[in-house]
Amino acid sequence: MAIEVLGLQKRYGDLMAVDDVSFTVREGEFFGILGPNGAGKTTTLEMVEGLRRPDAGEVRLLGEPTWPRNPRLLPRIGVQLQASAFFERLTAREQIHTFAALYDVPGARADEWLERVGLTEKAGSRTEKLSGGQLQRLAIACALVHDPEVVFLDEPTAAIDPQARRNLWDLLRSLNDAGRTVVLTTHYMDEAEALCDRVAIMDRGRVLQLDSPAALVRGLDAPVRIFVAPRLLPVEAALRIPGVDGAVDDDAAVVVTTRVPSTVLARLAELDALEGLQVKAATLEDVFLNLTGREYRA
Amino acid sequence: MRSFRAIALAIVKGFLRDKMSLFFAVVFPLMFLVLFGGVFNYESSPKIELVQVGRLSLVDELPDGAKEAFRQTFDVTRDDDLAAAVTTVRKGDADVAVEMRGDTLVAHYTQTDQVKAAVTQGTLAAFVDGANQALAGTPPRFSLTTERVEDKSLKTIQFVTPGLLGWAVAMSAAFGAAATLQGWRNSKLLRRLQLSPVPVGSVVGARVVVTVLIALGQMALFVGLGMSAFGLRLTGSWWMAVPLLVAGTLSFMSLGLLAGALAKTQEGAVNLANFLVLPMAFLSGSFFPLDGAPSWLQVVSGLLPLRHLNDGMLDVMVRGQGPSAAFLPIGILLGFAVVVTLVAVRLFRWEAD
């Protein structure tokens, strides 16, 4: 086990920021902690990293305790903090070379990582001049320059435009190579679905459920919704299709719910009602709604 | 060692590329040096401006030597209208208006420049006594000669450089410590460093070493400019200024640390540091001597580290005292640094809330 967390607790005044959180992370796994803002994800991560002292509970990272500060452990982990933690007025290249020096890593490796995150062109620019996406890339490179076994990413795509986010996902997926363990916190459902092997859904300091995204969704046993153009298929006709559980007209589309989507889709093809079709399966958002009874407020 | 060097280098680059820090550490104090050293670099005191109303029998009857002395001390203009003469003095265009009423020399003086007023009255009294003496006919038994204690060739610049240098060092050490601490805390860099294998001592040590090097750089700049442009001379045990400056830097860094610990934002920290350093510079005699100040002010001044640094530097650079003169100030400065650092560490929070 790369990480073992048992009964973690952290209280701030009256608020239980982290309430009896337990999970394990296997070596080489891409593990996600998903939840809305204020769920306790960052606090949990900080306790696992060793930045914060838990009020109760135990953390073992690569078999070692993380509190008090454990210098033996530190070269084996990499951290990308939520804010951009950089030195003032240094260029991207100077930043990563400084961090490389802290871990006694040769400068050539630092340059290699700059290239791997696609920042070679911006190497000579000061960090004050970089965009949000570029800063995150640099932070990730600085977290990995010493080739750690475990890397922690705290909301790595927060405050980045959607296109840059997609690009960053490609980079994040690649971090998993060579057996590196990745732990990521995020409040983006699609991100957790796209990247993580397993996801712990957190809300209000507690872990509600923990499994692979696919298993979580399957567990809902939720039907698929098919959105059909109303002029192609009126509601009454939809209700007559075998396998359809329900159909509603919401002005924009006729929403057909079914648990056997392939059968229904085949029939819709025969009826020539496929134009402008949309199929939406249950997502983690539905899982969240199911678990908490609340709309997911990102 | 490599990580220590890397952090120190990062700090140095950050400083050199920060135009505002550079200005306040280097350009701003040098401006004052040029001002005090260049413009006010005069050697002799100016004559007293005297308006003579009517004839002064006293002056006419002075022996030749005394008459010459009178002419050298006073810059005489004539105005036979007493009222106009008094107005001239009142306006500040002259220092004193003098008339004879019978055997009495009447001096109409202005109190606005207290030092000059005292000198004027004293000088006139001396001439009156001298005139009486001469009339009495007895040769005077006692005479007075004056000799300046300091090396005659020392100019104003010698007295001014230590104070200004102390002020410059105080400013950049306090600001540097305050701004860096705040900046690194707010940008979460401190936490990032906490999670790297770098020992805490290296981080703190790097910041201290860089600040001390900057202070020594400032000293080299001030002394260099003073010597090349204003005739500054290094006398006495001037090299003791180096350990003095190092101890001073540590005290001012601790002040900056306190400001950084107390304030919540980077601007707040810098403003607090400014609020502490500038009045301290005035009260420590960096700009003008405090000899005439009331005693309560002297007590306050004695509590300030900059005062001890200035005194120490004046002692070894100007007053020609031996190295041991610097020991007490160094001790006080280091003690101050330790106490204030402990207070700051207790107050400091690792993250800005």
Describe the structure.
The complex is a heterodimer of chains A (298) and B (353). Chain A has 298 residues and is an alpha/beta fold. Chain A has ten helices and 14 strands. Chain A has two domains: 3-218, Rossmann fold, CATH 3.40.50.300; 223-281, Alpha-Beta Plaits (2-Layer Sandwich). In chain A, strands 6-7-8-3-9-10 form a six-stranded mixed sheet, with helices on both faces. The longest helix of chain A is centred in the middle third of the chain and has 13 residues, at 132-144. The model of chain A has no long low-confidence stretch (mean pLDDT 89). Chain B folds into two domains: 2-41 and 155-347, no CATH class; 48-136, Periplasmic binding protein-like II (D-Maltodextrin-Binding Protein, domain 2). The model of chain B has no long low-confidence stretch (mean pLDDT 82). Chain B is built from 14 helices and four strands.
Write the topology of this structure.
The complex is a heterodimer of chains A (298) and B (353).
Chain A: E1 3-12, E2 15-25, E3 30-34, H1 41-49, E4 56-61, E5 64-65, E6 77-80, H2 92-102, H3 107-116, H4 132-144, E7 150-154, H5 162-174, E8 181-186, H6 189-195, E9 198-203, E10 206-211, H7 213-220, E11 224-228, H8 235-239, E12 244-249, E13 254-258, H9 261-270, E14 278-280, H10 284-292
Helix pairs in contact in A: 2-3, 2-4, 3-4, 7-10
Chain B: H1 2-16, H2 19-39, E1 48-53, H3 57-60, H4 64-73, E2 74-78, H5 82-91, E3 96-101, E4 104-109, H6 114-136, H7 156-186, H8 189-194, H9 200-230, H10 241-262, H11 266-283, H12 295-302, H13 305-317, H14 327-347
Parallel strand pairs in B: 1-2, 1-3
Antiparallel strand pairs in B: 3-4
Helix pairs in contact in B: 1-9, 2-7, 2-9, 7-9, 7-10, 7-11, 7-13, 9-10, 10-11, 10-13, 10-14, 13-14
Structural class, from secondary structure content of chain A? alpha/beta
If interface size is counted as residues with C-beta under 8 Å from the partner's C-beta, which chains form the largest one?
Answer: A-B, 27 and 25 residues
User: What is the 3D shape of chain A?
Assistant: globular
Please report the number of helical segments of chain A.
10
Task: Please state the overall shape of chain B, judged from the principal axes of the Cα atoms.
Answer: elongated
Strand content of chain B: 5-15%
Fold-level CATH name of the largest domain in chain A: Rossmann fold
Q: How would you classify the quaternary structure? A: heterodimer
Major pleated sheet of chain A: 6 strands, mixed
Uncertain ranges of chain B? none
- CATH architecture call of the largest domain in chain A: 3-Layer(aba) Sandwich
Largest sheet strand order of chain A: 6-7-8-3-9-10
Beta-strand content bin of chain A:
25-35%
